[in-house]
C-alpha cells in the first residue's frame, strides 16, 4: 500500500453471547510473543485446520509477516481476555488481499480451544468484514478442510459458496457484507446484525 497508514480504531471491550468480556483491537508488532504463545496453546488439530499443514512452531519470519502489517492489504484483529492481558490471545481474524485481485482477500479466523462455542469467531469476522468493506474488499476467500464443519457453517450462513474442492480442501467465497441489511435471516446473520448494531451505537 502506498500512502499513510490508515487510522486505527482503539481497543474496546465487548461481551460475547454468554456475557464473557473480551478486548478486541488491531494486531500490533509487539504481539509476536503473544501470537507464538497462543499458537502453542492450540491443539494439533486446530493448528492443522488453520495452516493446512503440520506445524510445530511459528518462525520469526512468519511472526513478522503476521504482526507487521499495513492494515489495508493485510489486516488482523486480536481478542484478549481483559482480566488477564498477560495471557495469549483468545482469537485472531485476518485478511490478506489477493495479488492482482484487489477486491478479493484471503481470510482466516482462529479461536483458542478454551474460547470456542461463545461466538468469538463470529465477532472477529464481523469486525474484519467492517474494516474490509471500508478498504475496498468485496469478497472473502477462505481455505479449509472439508471436515471443518464449524467454519464451513459460519461462512455458508452468511452467503459463502464453494469455488474449489481439491483433495479434501474447500475454497469458500463469501460477499463481504457492507451493512446488516445484506445479511441472511439465520442464526449467524442475526448475530452479525446484533454486532453491527452494537458497533453503530458504541
Question: What this model shows, in words?
Answer:
Helix content is 32%, strand content 28%. The chain contains six helices and eight strands, in the order E-E-H-H-H-E-E-E-H-E-H-E-E-H. An eight-stranded mixed β-sheet has the order 1-2-3-4-5-6-8-7, with helices on both faces. Strand 5, helix 4 (120-134) and strand 6 form a beta-alpha-beta unit. With 202 residues, the chain is α+β, with helices and mostly antiparallel strands. It has one domain (12-201): 3-Layer(aba) Sandwich (Aminopeptidase).
SSE layout:
Blueprint: E1 12-15, E2 21-26, H1 32-41, H2 44-51, H3 60-67, E3 74-80, E4 91-98, E5 101-111, H4 120-134, E6 139-145, H5 149-157, E7 161-166, E8 169-175, H6 187-201
Parallel strand pairs: 5-6
Antiparallel strand pairs: 1-2, 2-3, 3-4, 4-5, 6-8, 7-8
Descriptive labels:
202 residues; alpha+beta; Aminopeptidase; eight-stranded mixed beta sheet; 6 helices; disordered C terminus
Quick summary of this structure?
A hairpin with a 2-residue loop joins strand 4 and strand 5 (101-111).
Helix and strand succession?
EEHHHEEEHEHEEH
Structural class: alpha+beta
Question: What number of structural domains do the residues give?
Answer: 1
Count of DSSP helices?
Answer: 6
Q: Biggest sheet, open or closed, and with what strands and sense? A: 8 strands, mixed
Q: What would the average pLDDT be, to the nearest integer?
A: 79
Portion in beta strands: 25-35%
Amino acid at each position: 500500500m502506498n500512502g499513510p497508514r490508515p487510522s486505527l480504531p482503539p481497543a474496546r471491550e465487548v461481551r460475547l453471547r454468554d456475557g464473557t468480556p473480551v478486548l478486541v483491537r488491531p494486531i500490533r508488532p509487539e504481539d509476536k510473543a503473544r501470537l507464538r504463545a497462543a499458537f502453542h496453546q492450540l491443539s494439533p488439530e486446530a493448528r492443522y485446520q488453520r495452516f493446512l499443514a503440520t506445524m510445530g512452531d511459528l518462525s520469526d519470519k512468519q511472526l513478522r509477516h503476521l504482526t507487521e502489517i499495513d492494515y489495508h492489504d493485510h489486516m488482523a484483529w486480536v481478542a484478549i481476555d481483559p482480566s488477564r492481558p498477560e495471557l495469549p490471545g483468545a482469537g485472531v481474524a485476518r485478511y490478506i488481499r489477493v495479488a492482482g485481485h484487489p477486491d478479493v482477500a484471503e481470510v482466516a479466523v482462529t479461536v483458542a480451544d478454551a474460547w470456542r462455542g461463545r461466538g468469538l469467531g463470529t465477532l472477529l469476522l464481523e469486525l474484519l468484514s467492517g474494516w474490509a468493506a471500508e478498504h475496498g474488499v468485496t469478497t472473502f476467500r477462505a481455505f479449509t478442510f472439508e471436515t471443518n464443519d464449524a467454519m464451513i457453517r459460519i461462512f455458508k450462513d452468511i452467503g459463502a459458496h464453494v469455488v474449489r474442492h481439491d483433495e479434501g480442501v474447500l475454497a469458500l467465497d463469501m460477499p463481504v457484507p457492507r451493512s446488516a441489511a445484506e445479511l441472511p435471516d439465520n442464526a449467524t446473520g442475526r448475530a452479525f446484525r446484533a454486532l453491527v448494531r452494537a458497533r453503530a451505537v458504541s
